[in-house]
């Protein structure tokens, strides 16, 4: 009971991480994994969450012990680390917010039955709304909103999963053959799923900056164990919900012969209609709200994170060590990110698959590099030996780096040849 009270008191970075992660990788990729390949895909989902755990945990560990963001740790390791992370941030920030907002806009259009309005127009409205929330409320309002949204989302998805299981799996259509798991399409999907599960590895710096902001606002820093307990609760939630979405996709779609669309609006409509057809029309509002809350919370936290990280990277490259730089230019960063994302949506015609493919591809290939950079931070002289990761966590980190490196090389070979 005391541990639970401590976790609730320290809620913040782990909660935002869960909100940010429970989005595209869950609603889209986990659902598709179950729909196309069935229960078998639970294996890569679990493996991805285990192997990537240290990469994210190090973001909390470094900041809690040093009081600095992990981006400052990159600079302390050498300018090369910082410039490499700047490139990663630029590459992913071009595609990720646009992808998330296009899916969220698609859900909005589907739920409210909007006619004659383009997905880009709705996305523009979402970006404006998000910018207002973040500029006015900043971290404090964001955390307060998510303390309300995320628990409701968890309960809603748990209830949906139970209803789906109780209803039972659909009867496969005549002549249905399960797709091959290790053909070219299967491997590419597997790489996309692992690359984005539970989220992009560079999200460790987002987690670190949220932690810095949390400590500033509360004016109190929890112990390392307390900080890790709060993060672990959020991380465990993301893994469980990924399996929930897999179960829903597998039970309602595997063997149906239905091919999920790459278009944001069509995909959203398909998912909601299929779920309600399987469970009952009475569940439409329940499912629609859960799906929209999933994507909107991710869309909002991602916007805040990339805006926050971008300005922090720029200030560190410029050599400014004052935290006031981040505060002063945060609003400008939020607005610039909105404008840039809208341009991406116009250029790519709101093609969710293309935008998502770019983002996940970059994240996947560079994941082992970021993992290694994070390991170097927490094993540096800035961290007392007693607070460094234990041997088992170090071994798990190297296993994760090795495994993801092999997949990244194979992915590169498939793309080139």
SSE arrangement, N to C:
HHHHHHHHHHHHHHH
CATH superfamily: Amino acid/polyamine transporter I
Radius of gyration: 21 Å
Structural class: mainly alpha
Oligomer: single chain
CATH fold-level topology: Amino acid/polyamine transporter I
Distance between the termini: 56 Å
Query: How much helical structure, as a percent, in the residues?
Result: over 70%
CATH class: Mainly Alpha
Number of strands: 0
Q: What is the total number of structural domains? A: 1
**Basic shape:** globular
Low-confidence spans = none
Number of helices: 15
- The percent range for strand residues is under 5%
Question: How many strands, what sense, and barrel or not for the largest sheet?
Answer: none
The overall pLDDT, averaged over residues, is 82
- Per CATH, the architecture is Up-down Bundle
Highlighted features:
417 residues; mainly alpha; Amino acid/polyamine transporter I; globular; 0% strand; single chain; NRAMP_fam
Q: How does the SSE layout of this entry go?
A:
Elements: H1 2-9, H2 13-21, H3 24-37, H4 42-66, H5 70-77, H6 79-112, H7 119-167, H8 184-195, H9 203-218, H10 224-253, H11 264-279, H12 284-317, H13 324-347, H14 352-378, H15 391-416
Membrane topology: Multi-pass membrane protein
InterPro entries: NRAMP_fam
Transmembrane segments: 40-60, 81-111, 117-136, 148-165, 185-212, 233-254, 274-296, 329-348, 354-375, 395-413
């Amino acid at each position: 009971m005391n541990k639970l009270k401590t976790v609730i008191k320290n809620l913040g970075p782990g909660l935002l991480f869960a909100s940010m992660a429970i989005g595209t990788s869950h609603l889209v990729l986990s659902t598709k994994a179950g729909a196309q390949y069935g229960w078998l895909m639970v294996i890569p989902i679990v493996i991805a969450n285990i192997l990537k755990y240290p990469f994210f945990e190090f973001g909390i560990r470094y900041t809690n012990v040093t009081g600095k963001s992990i981006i400052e740790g990159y600079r302390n390791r050498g300018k090369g680390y910082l410039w490499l992370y700047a490139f990663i941030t630029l590459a992913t920030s071009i595609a990720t917010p646009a992808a998330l907002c296009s899916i969220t806009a698609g859900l909005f259009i589907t739920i409210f039955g909007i006619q004659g309005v383009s997905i880009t127009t709705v996305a523009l409205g979402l970006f404006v709304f998000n910018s207002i929330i973040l500029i006015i409320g900043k971290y404090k309002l964001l955390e307060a909103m998510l303390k309300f949204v995320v628990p409701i989302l968890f309960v809603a998805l748990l209830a949906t999963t139970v209803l789906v299981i109780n209803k039972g799996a659909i009867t496969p259509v005549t002549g249905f053959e399960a797709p091959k798991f290790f053909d070219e399409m299967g491997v590419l999907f597997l790489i996309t799923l692992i690359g984005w599960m539970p989220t992009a590895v560079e999200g460790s710096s987002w987690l670190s900056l949220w932690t810095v902001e949390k400590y500033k606002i509360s004016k109190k820093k929890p112990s390392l164990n307390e900080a890790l307990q709060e993060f672990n609760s959020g991380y465990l939630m993301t893994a469980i919900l990924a399996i929930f979405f897999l179960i829903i996709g597998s039970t309602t779609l595997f063997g149906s012969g239905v091919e999920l669309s790459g278009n944001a609006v069509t995909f959203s409509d398909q998912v909601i209609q299929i779920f309600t057809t399987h469970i009952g029309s009475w569940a439409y509002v329940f499912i629609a709200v859960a799906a929209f809350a999933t994507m909107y919370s991710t869309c909002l936290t991602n916007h805040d994170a990339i805006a926050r990280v971008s300005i922090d990277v720029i200030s560190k490259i410029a050599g400014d060590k004052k935290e006031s730089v981040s505060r002063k230019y945060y609003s400008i960063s939020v607005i610039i990110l909105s404008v840039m994302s809208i341009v991406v949506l116009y250029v790519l015609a709101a093609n969710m698959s293309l935008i998502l493919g770019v983002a996940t591809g970059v994240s996947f290939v560079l994941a082992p590099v970021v993992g290694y950079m994070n390991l170097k931070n927490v094993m540096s002289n800035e961290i007392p030996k007693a607070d460094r990761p234990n041997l088992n966590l170090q071994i798990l980190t190297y296993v994760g780096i090795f495994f993801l490196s092999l997949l990244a090389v194979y992915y590169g070979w498939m793309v080139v040849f």
